[in-house]
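Lab notes, practical 5.
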Amino acid sequence: MNAGKLYRAPRRWPGIVAAASAGVLVGAAIGVGATMLTRERTAVAAVTVSVTPEPSAPPAARPLERANRQTCEGWDIAGKLINDAADALTAIPEGTSILDPAVRNNPEHVSAVMHAGDLFQQAADALKQRITPGAAEILTLTSQTTVSSLAALATAYRSFDESSGDSITTARTAAHNMSALCKRLIG
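Output from the prediction step:
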């Protein structure tokens, strides 16, 4: 009599068939999903196609003398705004720092400092807008430096930054350089 085997090797083929069937189903689902996404993307892309205009060419360089003059005209406008800022600061007693507690505790003085900061920023913006391509390289670079120093000064004043003493020195030096260059280049 055959009592039978105590251990019978498992039949592997049903598991292999089941795994293969699952793989086919997953592959089919992915294929259908990818096809649907592609169709949806294609349809959306066809609807949302937009044409981006070519970036405009940078302004053409102007003759040197004219470009220098236009840049220095920007400096004239900035200079007037800087003078207006200095006038606004006359509300603060001479020799008094904007960091002095007497200034910080007086609303009129605080307002004067904030207004001066705004005017310094306007001066920076006015000069920046008028830096003309084709100007002498030294004038262009000095103009950019002056714009940066005026913007830093504006920030220092509006935030009552403790480094404002250094900012005023930097802006003053840049302003003197701009004035000297414009005087020399355009008379």
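Observations recorded by the TA: The two ends are 126 Å apart (CA to CA). Residues 103 and 144 are 31 Å apart (CA to CA).
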